[in-house]
Each structure stands twice: as structure tokens, then as C-alpha cells.
Amino acid sequence: MRFIGVDLAWATDTKHTGIAVMEGDAERVWLRCLSKGMRSLDAVASYVLGHTAPTTVVSIDASLIVRTRRGNERAISQTFGARGASCHSTNRGRQHFDSGGRLVEKLGFAHFIPFEGPMRGGQWVIEVYPHPAMLRLFNLDWIIRYKKGKVAEKRGGLVELQQRLKTLACLEDSEALSTLLEQDPAARRGNSLKELEDLLDATFCAYLAWHNSRWGAERNDCFGDLEHGYIVVRRSA
Q1: Do residues 146 and 197 touch, judged by C-beta distance below 8 A?
Q2: Where are the domains of the chain?
Q3: pTM of whole model > 0.85?
């Protein structure tokens, strides 16, 4: 089975998108490969499709369904906002609001919800948001600060994220994973630092694809629905 994580850029045709491809079964997964230089929606779709198998779950950190105001984002902010994991509001009036939806159309995959049971076959997509999942998974009082703030703070957050990923018992060691987790954020700046962030986010999203597939509704919560938009967040361990 394949589990693909996509940290989709808001402006997909100008900004960098990170993609991570994992493979595994009900017990273990390993990181097979990471994308490089993804700066267009067509390139992202082509990379994902080029790495799919008959059973594939793709977790995407982006708004995939935007028809009206997304109550799921309000629910996420109410639940996790006090710990730093509020959502940016997505609506049809914002530029690039449809990037996630356009990617789903290009892939031609169905949405993984409603959960019909774990480890089902087929090709699926699911919307995720890493920050709330990390809060629950790692039992954090506050989000890992790797996206905003001063450069030194973001670098420190990326180091923490690298260390946290090393603790995932289901994640087997691989050359791709070792290379990613040994990257030194202090040696990067500007676009290079942002690309490392994107790939680490994508790797965590790929883990969430596995977790959603493995456990379904038993260990995942769905905020929202297919009509108005949704975000799936893993439950606490």
C-alpha cells in the first residue's frame, strides 16, 4: 500500500510544494522518496500519480472542498486555537482558494470519508492539518513553532519536528528518511529552509495517510463533512 503526503502550496504555480511517498502495511511504513522542485499544480499531480499503487491514500494539507464558509475550520479553531492551531479561513473570494480542489480533480481519487473501515482498497484523498494532529500525537501544550517567527525560531522548530518524527514507532528507517532527518536547518535559509519545512510537513502528512487508513474512525475524528468541507485529525494515543 502507498501513503502519500502533500504539503500543497497555496499558490501552487509559483510556490514550492513538498511531497512524501511511503509504502507499508498495517504495522509499518517506510519513506520511499521525496519530491524535489515541485512548483506547479501539474507537476504535483504528475508526481503523485507516478507513485500511486492500486491501494493508495493521499493526505493533503490544503482546503479540498470550498463551497461556502467552512464550518470545519471554525470547529478546529475552537478546539485547538488555545494551543496555537487555529485555521486560516478559506472562502471562494480568496485567490487560489481552489488549488486543493483542482488537485483532487487532476488525481481523480475519491475522498476517504466517511470512514467505512480501516485499510480498505482503492485510491483515496483526505484533507489533513498537521498542527492539531501533532498536538494530539505528541501530547503538546502548544504547536511546534516551525512555520512562523524569526528564522532562529523556525530552525529550532524544524529540529524539534525532526526529533519528533524519529519517535514514531511505525516508521521504519530508510535512506530517504535518514537523509531528511539529518538535514541541518541551521545550514539553510530562505527558499532552502522553506523547502525543508515543506518536505518534513509532507512526511508527517504521509504518516497521517497511513494512520487514517490503518485506523479509520476508531482513532481519527472528522471535523465537518463532504458537503461543506472537512478536516481529519488523529485522536490522541
Answers
A1: yes
A2: 2-234
A3: yes
Query: In 3D, which of 17, 19, 21, 23 has the Cα closest to residue 1?
Result: 23
14, three cell numbers: 509559483
The answer to whether 50 touches 228, Cβ cutoff 8 Å, is: no
Which of 116, 67, 61 has the alpha carbon at shortest distance from 231? 61
Would you give the distance in Å from CA 84 to the centre of its chain? Answer: 17
Angle at 122 between CA 118 and CA 124, to 5 degrees: 80
Check whether 236 has a pLDDT greater than 90: no
CB 119 within 8 A of CB 214: yes
Question: pLDDT of 152-190, one tens digit each?
Answer: 999 999 999 999 999 999 999 999 999 999 999 999 999
The stretch 137-151 carries a mean pLDDT of: 94
Residue 81 CA: distances (Å) to CA of 64, 76, 129, 213? 21, 7, 13, 27
Q: Which residues contact 170 (CB under 8 A, 6 or more apart)?
A: 24, 27, 28, 29, 207, 210
- Residue 2 pairs in a beta bridge with 23, 56
Residue 48 near residue 69, CB atoms below 8 Å: no
Q: Which of 119, 120, 138, 147 is nearest to 61 (CA)?
A: 147
Q: Strand (E) positions, the chain?
A: 2-7, 18-24, 29-34, 56-60, 110-111, 123-127, 171-172, 220-225, 229-234
Tens digit of each residue's pLDDT (9 = 90 or more) over 31-61? 999 999 999 999 999 999 999 999 999 999 9
Which amino acid, 171? L
Instruction: Spell out the residues 6+ positions from residue 152 whose beta carbon is closer than 8 angstroms to its own.
Output: none
